[in-house]
Amino acid sequence: MSPAAVPRPRTPDAPNGPHPEYLSAFDGPSDPPVPPPGGTPQAAPDSGPDGGDVPGDRAPEAGPGGGPGGRLRLFTGLCAAAVTAGLTLLVVGQGATVGGGTEDLAGAGEQPGGEAPSGEEPPASELSESPPDSEEPEPTYAEWLAAAQDVDPDLDGPGTFTVVPGRQGGGGEGATRLTYRVEVEDEVGVDAAKFARAVHTTLSDERSWSHDNAYSFERVDSGPADFVLTLASPVTTAEWCAKSGLDTTVDNVSCDSAATERIMINAYRWGHGSPTFGPDLIRQYREMLINHEVGHRIGLGHEFCPEDGALAPVMMQQTKTLTTGDRTCRPNAWPHPGA
């Protein structure tokens, strides 16, 4: 069966007004449509195979009201038009979502919601970023104290210090009471609160100078103090140690600047430790550093390795070496390691 005829748009040569076939469906019988000038009559929808009318089979003329033939043709045409319009919308919709055979929306080459057509990668700028990884949990105090920290060996800080707030009590009655303040040079990049905790925890340990209630170390953050335990950059450390005639630029070490109120802890050494302790004993190295420099402040000098294989005295210069003559000691953080 031939598809139902759908009325075509008027051409410039078409007569004005509604198409005659359209009017015939409502006004009853009318003359056959007049072909456009220069055109040829088209075969009627029920023409025979040779293009002529088949005698005796001719469809009855449409009567008043359009008749069965006219109404059928109108109904068939309207249905065809509706189906065609629906298919068009469906194809366009499929093209917009699947990219199949039609132009993409707005010619942008991407799908609604930023999805690229099948087989194409979306532009890098359109890729949605992965959810940011959750931040790593804050290390515990023990983890922080045992981990190396990146500090430049040539770091030159501004030379200004910030007092770490907080007060912590010392030992019991009968001990020699010493007060101290903790200060950290600005911009050295070390957690000041954890550093202050490490200092007080070390000095309050029974293996430290507090052993047998010999000393009591009380941390203050204002008022007078017996000394200021200071964490500073290598350059600032060297400047303050030079005030007491000490050269810390050799081996980049720390010092007790006895002519001043400051014990200077070199931030580079605090961060990296030393080859004598190695990477697995960072915490022990830091505890040794505090005990060693405070030992100078309470009046003790350097000691040497007493016996091959023994624990090094805490007042030995363990940052530089564990060997004295033919004797090599093991690293040690405490004045009273067996306590």
Detailed description of the structure:
- The chain is of the alpha/beta class.
- Strands 1, 2, 3, 4, 5 and 6 form a 6-stranded mixed β-sheet that branches.
- A hairpin with a 2-residue loop joins strand 7 and strand 8.
- The longest helix is centred in the first third of the chain and has 32 residues.
- It is globular and about 45 Å long.
Largest sheet: 6 strands, mixed
Q: Hey, roughly how much beta strand do the residues contain?
A: 5-15%
Low-pLDDT runs: 1-75, 87-131
Please compute the radius of gyration using only Cα atoms: 49 Å
Helix content: 25-40%
Alpha-beta content class: alpha/beta
Please state the average pLDDT score: 75
Shape: globular
Calculate the terminal CA-CA distance, rounded to whole Å.
109 Å
Query: Treating each run of at least 4 consecutive H or I residues as one helix, how many helices?
Result: 7
β-strand number: 8
Q: How would you spell out the order of helices and strands?
A: HHHEEHEEHEEHHEE
Give a concise summary:
With 339 residues, the chain is α/β, with parallel strands linked by helices. It is built from 7 helices and 8 strands.
Layout: helices, strands, pairs:
Elements: H1 20-27, H2 67-98, H3 141-146, E1 161-163, E2 176-185, H4 192-203, E3 215-219, E4 227-232, H5 234-242, E5 255-256, E6 262-266, H6 267-272, H7 282-297, E7 323-324, E8 327-328
Helix pairs in contact: 4-7
Key traits:
8 strands, 339 residues, alpha/beta
